[in-house]
Backbone:
């Protein structure tokens, strides 16, 4: 059985360390050949916006931009809460990074229950 990790990130630029740790864990899991999916809810939805991660840094961690790029280049997907993006006026068609898409609560619930492990930041 292959390991599947679901990471829910609810933090954006206002909590740089937690947003960054989400992608430290995601890239580490990918490097360990785990299947990884990152969900973005609340202010985490900002991380799906082009250019948003460029200025997010946390002491002692790689820049979020680098981690996010590595995650996406390794085939990672960003699943974004639809109402969270809408309330922040983030337009998926215009603003999203490649690899990001809108999903609903049912998708998140199924991912949590089908994953080997789940983390929330």
Residues:
């Amino acid at each position: 059985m292959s390991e599947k990790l679901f990471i829910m990130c609810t933090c954006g630029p206002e909590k740089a360390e937690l947003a960054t740790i989400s992608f430290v864990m995601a890239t580490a899991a990918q490097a360990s050949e785990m299947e990884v999916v990152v969900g973005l809810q609340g202010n985490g939805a900002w991380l799906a916006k082009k250019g948003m991660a460029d200025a997010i840094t946390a002491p002692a961690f790689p820049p979020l931009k680098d981690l996010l790029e590595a995650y996406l280049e390794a085939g990672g997907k960003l699943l974004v809460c639809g109402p969270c993006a809408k309330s922040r006026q983030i337009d998926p068609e215009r603003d999203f990074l490649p690899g990001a898409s809108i999903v609903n609560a049912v998708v998140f619930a199924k991912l949590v229950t089908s994953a080997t492990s789940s983390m929330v930041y």
